[in-house]
Amino acid sequence: MSTPSLNQGSAFTASRLTPTTFLVKEYNDIYDEKPHIYVKIVKEEKVIMIIDTGCGGAMKGPALSHDGSEGAGGTVTSLRTFIETVPVDDNGGHPLNIRGENSYLVVLTHCHYDHILAVEDFPSSPILVSGHDPAFLSPSALPEHTLCKRLNLSVPKYTPTMVPHLYEIFGMNRDRSGGKARVSVLHTPGHTPDELALYDWVDGMLYVGDSLYEEEPVIFPKEGSIVTWFSSMQFLIQFTKERNAERQRSGLGQTLVNAGHCTALKPALEVIESAVSFIRDVVDGKEKVRRKSQVAGLLVVEYKQDSGRFSLRCPMVLIDEAN
Questions:
Q1: Which of 98, 147, 208, 309 matches a 20 to 30 Å C-alpha distance to 87?
Q2: What is the CA radius of gyration of the chain?
């Protein structure tokens, strides 16, 4: 794998969130998704944990070099190449996994295309997914459930490992206060049946995928369920309250939330409770429909707060089911 020149462009940018975790943004993808990819360096395990893999690097405009200028020496569109070769200012000017010294572990918060299109960059790495609804992730179902079929995309080839609710990726049987990596999988179906969240016990970070985020519409497919989403969000609210209480007793800051788009490093409890309040207002008829459209024979509606903070796009039938 060649090393990019300093003026070589990239489809990605990276910034530090915690001493061990970086937010990688695919900032100009052709699908206009701008997905968040999270990269956690787990030194004691010699592992790089990647949360979602983005859109595969396909861009709709010029790439930027690592210093923010327009790159002139070719474009890095492979997520793995970016992680292993492109200097990151917030990492002392070094790549996140220089020369691929550490192995990889990939976690997919759900199977939509904008989270899985670079998964083939990691062919020999474990790929962890929710085991909540195995049929939803069956090979025959993936073309539709990934939304790849709708976009005439090939489904990436990967073999997922389905894990249970409360599965611990790192730190099994470790003391929670011991300073070692400890990350738990939380099943949070609703947006999709396979949606999961992750909690990093050391950093106090909650990763929620596309269950909620700000500024852009949260888009539920027809396989989603607002009823189930409410239940999952109530679980996350209680979970976050418990973690906040633990962290307060230890003199630590509150849990922060990181989403699959737009939202990062925000107070988790406030964001989740505010998102639930908005969706509850939608179901109760307190928010007006901003737009209607027909998609694949379904009436799709869009709601948006006047402030623009939260918005929702989903088949109308999901609203009806929640009443």
A1: 208
A2: 19
